[in-house]
């Protein structure tokens, strides 16, 4: 610690400079993320190429493209997609830049933020950074290795996107535009890696640092949306807006990406400067001291678990309310939009005999439910994070049993899943009622959202089962929501076999409000979820606890 303090004072390491050991840490980071980052990059690339394929099938004629361009030209459509300039010549390439670039850029930002926080603040939080710095490692080595790792991941994703789109041979998707499309994603990823380099200096907890950086992504998306609806000035305050204003496959402008690179360099430089103004393990913002005595709820396992997860719950509830509201804002135009698109009309009508608006609501509800399941996965895996951080050991050394400790987190995860679904259904219903003029859609869409609660519980149950019996493989639970999205949302468009959807818990949920509620299926999914949780808790009681 004395050596670290000295390094803090001078900004350099006495034995090798501030960047000593960066190469070793970079190789270590790439090895640790040998599965995580390829999964991120592969999923984003596959999702982008699958979307291009779905665009080719859904909007196969000029009339189809004109119809969807007219719909997306509304204020709600521009807020959801991107600037209206893309709509002037709405080919497949313009669709990718308009509808996909801003959405995927948010996910790329999420990938790089989590990567930087994982290799910097989390290393300090767990005490590993202090051990590593006992060797010949410079003060800036950790941050540099994390930034280079995030940048390499962004560039690899950009390269794969460019190669995949360029080789697709789709009409209007040339190699020049494909290179710009990939570069735009890489630039946005590098920008938010720089933003994370700042936030990890502010707070001493990785969750807080990630949350602040994710809030910056949300603000960037909101500025982009507000700017595209208005005069466009606000979009120039957002790196996502800069990426979309390359007008890829339309004008192919490279210069807006220079703004991304300047912001990334400035943010990274600020991160380096701020890192010299704090001690190892501490943040620039001092942690608040708690109350002198805990409340009655906080002394109970469920109350303590809720306290630990309330930030995650609040964030997902607010985000899903906004997501539901965005879909609700175009619900009144759904019939007109779908009626002009033969392919999409056929897909939506497969849902049931209800109206096109109800079928549209049931179709997009799967997207809302999959996003809500991400909360369930993160909440169910919280015990694993507590275990690896060494905070579970002192709790379990008291009279608290392993079953009660894990069960408390499971209770928060399952109840939280209901809360975030209610928030999504409420946002969908309120804006849907405003756009359709029918207040009756509010209870219908609340019920449609809650119908997915048992599927969310099964997803969380898979996470608990992996935690109990294969804790090092808990990341595999992410396959469940990703698979649900692919077969549930893209499956009808790509004409995938129905039996693939039935392998997902989401495939057994009725498409309310287009279909009636199936209480038997809900009871079956609930029973499966309970069995998975019991199985996971039994495994946790039998295995050794990972200690520090």
Helix-strand string: HHHHHHHHHHHHHHHHHHHHHHHHH
Global geometry: globular
Strand content: under 5%
Global Rg: 24 Å
With helices defined by DSSP (H or I, 4 residues minimum), what is the helix count?
Answer: 25
- Helical content band: over 70%
The largest pleated sheet is described as: none
Segments where pLDDT lies below 50 for 5+ residues?
A: 1-13
Lay out the secondary structure.
Blueprint: H1 2-10, H2 22-32, H3 36-58, H4 62-72, H5 75-80, H6 92-119, H7 121-125, H8 128-132, H9 141-168, H10 175-202, H11 206-229, H12 239-244, H13 256-275, H14 301-329, H15 334-339, H16 342-349, H17 356-380, H18 382-388, H19 392-396, H20 402-436, H21 441-450, H22 453-469, H23 479-494, H24 498-502, H25 519-542
Helix pairs in contact: 2-9, 3-6, 3-9, 3-23, 6-9, 6-10, 6-11, 9-10, 10-11, 10-13, 14-17, 14-20, 17-20, 17-22, 17-23, 20-21, 20-22, 20-25, 22-25
Please summarize what this structure is.
Helices cover 71% and strands 0% of the residues.
């Amino acid at each position: 610690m004395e050596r670290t303090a000295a390094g803090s004072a001078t900004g350099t390491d006495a034995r090798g400079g501030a960047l000593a050991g960066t190469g070793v840490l970079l190789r270590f980071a790439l090895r640790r993320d040998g599965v995580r980052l390829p999964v991120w990059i592969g999923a984003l690339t596959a999702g982008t190429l699958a979307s291009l394929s779905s665009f080719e099938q859904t909007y196969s004629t000029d009339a189809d493209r004109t119809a969807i361009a007219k719909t997306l030209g509304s204020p709600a459509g521009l807020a959801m997609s991107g600037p209206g300039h893309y709509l002037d010549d709405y080919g497949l390439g313009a669709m990718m830049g308009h509808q996909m670039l801003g959405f995927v850029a948010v996910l790329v930002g999420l990938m790089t933020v989590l990567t930087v926080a994982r290799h910097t603040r989390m290393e300090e939080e767990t005490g590993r950074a202090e051990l590593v710095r006992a060797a010949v490692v410079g003060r800036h080595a950790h941050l540099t290795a994390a930034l280079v790792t995030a940048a390499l991941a962004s560039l690899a994703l950009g390269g794969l996107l460019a190669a995949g789109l360029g080789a697709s041979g789709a009409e209007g998707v040339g190699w020049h535009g494909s290179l710009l499309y990939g570069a735009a994603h890489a630039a946005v990823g590098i920008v938010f890696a720089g933003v994370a380099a700042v936030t990890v200096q502010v707070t001493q907890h990785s969750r807080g640092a990630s949350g602040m950086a994710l809030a910056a992504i949300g603000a960037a998306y909101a500025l982009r949306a507000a700017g595209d609806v208005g005069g466009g000035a606000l979009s120039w305050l957002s790196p996502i807006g800069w990426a979309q204003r390359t007008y890829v496959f339309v004008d192919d402008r490279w210069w807006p990406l220079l703004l991304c690179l300047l912001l990334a360099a400035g943010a990274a430089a600020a991160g380096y400067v701020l890192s010299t103004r704090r001690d190892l393990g501490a943040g620039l913002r001092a942690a608040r001291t708690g109350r002198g005595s805990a409340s009655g709820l906080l002394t109970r396992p469920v109350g303590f678990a809720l306290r630990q997860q309330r930030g995650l719950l609040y964030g997902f509830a607010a985000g899903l309310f906004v997501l539901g509201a965005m879909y609700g804002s175009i619900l009144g135009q759904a019939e007109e939009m779908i009626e002009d698109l033969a392919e999409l009309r056929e897909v939506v009508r497969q849902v049931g005999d209800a109206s096109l608006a109800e079928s549209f609501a049931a179709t997009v509800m799967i997207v809302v439910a999959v996003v809500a399941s991400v909360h369930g996965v993160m909440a169910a895996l919280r015990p694993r994070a507590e275990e690896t951080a060494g905070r579970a050991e002192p709790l379990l050394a008291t009279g608290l049993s392993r079953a009660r400790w894990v069960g408390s987190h499971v209770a928060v995860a399952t109840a939280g899943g209901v809360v975030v679904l209610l928030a999504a259904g409420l946002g969908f219903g309120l804006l849907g009622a405003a756009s359709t003029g029918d207040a009756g859609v509010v209870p219908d869409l609340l019920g449609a959202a809650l119908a997915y609660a048992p599927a969310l519980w099964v997803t969380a149950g898979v996470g608990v089962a992996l935690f109990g019996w294969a804790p090092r493989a808990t990341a595999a639970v992410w396959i469940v929501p990703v698979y649900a999205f692919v077969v549930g949302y893209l499956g009808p468009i790509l004409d995938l076999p129905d039996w693939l959807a039935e392998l997902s818990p989401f495939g057994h949920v009725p498409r309310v409000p287009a279909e009636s509620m199936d209480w038997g299926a809900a009871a079956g999914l609930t029973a499966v979820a309970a069995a998975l949780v019991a199985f996971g808790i039994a495994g946790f009681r039998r295995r050794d606890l990972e200690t520090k």
